[in-house]
Design a protein that fits this description.
Helix content: 25-40%
Structural class: alpha+beta
Strand content: 15-25%
Number of helices: 2
Order of helices and strands: EHHEE
Shape: globular
Radius of gyration: 11 Å
């Protein structure tokens, strides 16, 4: 269900692996990432963003802080 998944990790290899895994686990991605304490922004095919595990909130201008 995710058009895009962006993860924060110690390095790019780990971030890429987590993002790829999140796409594979699909609906379970938010819980999967949260259990592993991997901050992520998941965007569905309608363009709605879901922040998990400490991904920074939007500011009033819509930009991440």
């Amino acid at each position: 269900p995710w058009a895009q998944v962006t993860c924060m990790a110690a390095d790019t290899v780990l971030a890429n692996a987590a993002s790829t895994a999140a796409v594979i686990v699909a609906d379970d991605a938010p819980e999967w990432l949260t259990r592993r304490r991997i901050p992520a922004l998941l965007v569905d095919h309608d363009g709605h963003g879901y922040r998990v595990a400490g991904w920074p909130p939007e500011t009033s201008t819509g930009e991440a802080i």
